[in-house]
Amino acid sequence: MSITEMSTQGALKHFFGFDEFKGEQEQVVDCVLRGQDSFVIMPTGGGKSMCYQLPALMMEGTAIVVSPLIALMKNQVDAIRGHHDADSIAHYLNSSLSKSDAMRVREDVATGLTKLLYVAPESLTKEDNINFLRSIRISFVAVDEAHCISEWGHDFRPEYRRIRSIVNQIADVPIIALTATATPKVQADIQKNLEMKNAQLFKASFNRDNLFYEIRAKKDALKQIVRHAKRNVGKSGIIYCLSRKKVEEISEVLRVNGIKALGYHAGMDANTRSRMQDQFLMQDVDVIVATIAFGMGIDKPDVRFVIHYDIPKSLESYYQETGRAGRDGGEGHCIAFYSHRDIEKLEKFLQGKPLAEQEIGQQLLQEVMAYAETSMSRRKFLLHYFGEEFDEHNGPGAMNCDNMANPPVLRDGQEEVHLVLSAILEHGQQFRAPFITGVLCGEENREIQDYKGVSSPFWCRGKDHDVRHWNGIIRQMLVLGLIRKEIETYGVLKIKDAGMDFLTNPTPVMVAKERDYSDVDAIDSMSQTRSSQGGAMDEKLRDMLKSLRKEVADEQSLPPYVIFQDVSLDEMAIHYPLTEDELLRISGVGSGKARKFGKPFLKLIDEYVEQEGIERAEDLLVRTTNNKSSSKVHIIQRIDRQIDLPDIAKDLNISREEVMSEIENIVSAGTKVNLDYIIDKALDEDSLEELFEFLKESEDASVTALIEEWNDVYSEEELLLARIKFLSEYAN
What we know:
- The protein is α/β, with parallel strands linked by helices.
- It has five domains: 3-203, Rossmann fold (3-Layer(aba) Sandwich), CATH 3.40.50.300; 211-390, P-loop containing nucleotide triphosphate hydrolases (Rossmann fold, 3-Layer(aba) Sandwich); 414-508, Arc Repressor Mutant, subunit A (Orthogonal Bundle); 530-620, HRDC domain (DNA polymerase, domain 1); 629-730, Orthogonal Bundle (Arc Repressor Mutant, subunit A).
- The protein is 48% helix and 11% strand.
- It contains 34 helices and 17 strands.
- Strands 3-4-2-5-6-1-7 form a seven-stranded parallel beta sheet, sandwiched between helices. Strands 8-13-12-9-11-10 form a six-stranded parallel beta sheet, with helices on both faces.
- Helix 23 crosses helix 27 and helix 30 runs parallel beside helix 34 (716-730).
- The radius of gyration is 32 Å and the shape is globular.
- Residues 521-534 have low confidence and may be disordered.
């Protein structure tokens, strides 16, 4: 039996080894085989790729798959080749190929060996590629990540809007469009642009019942991330950030704390990104910290958590990115950190863009805020956004979100709902939520003045509550189906039939108090105030540690600060470290210090914890990194090569004074450095001996104390060099 004569079930088993299809996969495949246009909306992990891969393998000719990312193409091609003997079965054609590689791809396609050819939309528009594709037999065109067509989608790509016109130039073949995120508005845009009004629509449920959705206040977010990763060692996770700088910072903090993590962003070269992606897929690393450039189309079924350090720009993005967790049906924890400051940053990004684009962006951000601050079922909220109803009490995965696991207190909001509906009706259903809430609260902004809101009969009718309260009521009314937002007019509120019925016949309606994130600060640094480091300081223990430090110092004939600095003792009295590994997480404690002085301190803490019956919160022990850690590495490397200080400063584009300060920080934290090649030129042995004696005897051996005592004899740099050498030899 030839491939074309096989049943779809038989072909599925033959090519992929599966016994049965998932969801509506079989119906989609049959539709493509019949030569009909198809529009497939399936959640991440729903098996969209199979919908075009299988018919491509069964049909005569080559299927053209339009894909937005090189990494995505590579991943898909590798996956197909893994199910087939010959690599020629699938190829990609994009800017990453050399001329010779591109020529080989064309040869395989022309000879009929290639069944799937992945192309970037930019490549599809090139004249020589259009001419080549005209010359071959094409089975159909698949448009993956079709939401890129719409300005209302989360990843708008202008090149996608040219796909239909180019396909018309190439061949008269069916089109299958596929996406994992499509609101009704985006769906309409896709169908209109691709001229697929008569396409058969396949829309699977967007409910990923195995995913647990959680929003956290963005406070001590880095520490929370480290704790979560440490509790889930060996599990795969993705952490999304908006900036490259934050990617590098978080990945480094994770590595310092023993987590196998890598950073991934568009600033890296293609080979590096590809290598990191492969390391993640092969489980050589557990956690990828990335910008949104990572993950589209990544087929890794066992991602157990997805964390958004920064809140995404749209709910489509959020859904798409969280959907990379638990694709095998197993555990999937989705955590997003949220603060108003992040929203303000995203709003600033919109400034300077065309007005229409700003309006769209603002509305998408409002939906994100609504989701983050809602007290209702997050699953119900998400599914409503995608045009799907959900029973928040009995539906699959109903309890899998923070709001349902710890539900807020509900109350009857009948009067407030009636007031909002009446205000919308009074103003002709012509205004967005900010106008309605502004009128109710008595705000006097430009829009309210222009449209005479101050003379409205509803002016100040809701002043007993703030705008945030009324926004919460409106959000719940939207999900309850009493009102809707008109997308075409950027969110004008319209009353639905159920809302009109409510106005004439009010009934009890249960609402919840919205969550308040207005006073949350987005803290970006691991260097926190003492009160945020995990708990209150144990003053009794700190005094005991201080006494022990004095004993050890006296035995060693060294000043106490050489043993451990005050800040280190403070952290010990907060975190109760019991092992050398835990001690290394304490600020200012390097491996040298831990080995040299750590044992008696760990013994004291262990005995104290036992005697006092203290239950330690071990997950609070988070090792920090210096914000200038990259400079630290460069400085140490250059000192090892005996590079002079001015040259180090020039290489790093910092001042000589900053270099000296950094070296001092390095040594104080417990790392030895050998500056003899510099010190020998500045200070003789007698001078060093003299200064060392002072440093040994002084209770305060700060740079300031040194300068006050010796400024008539030595320069500031000479004194600092002597102190660095002293700390390196005696403290580490």
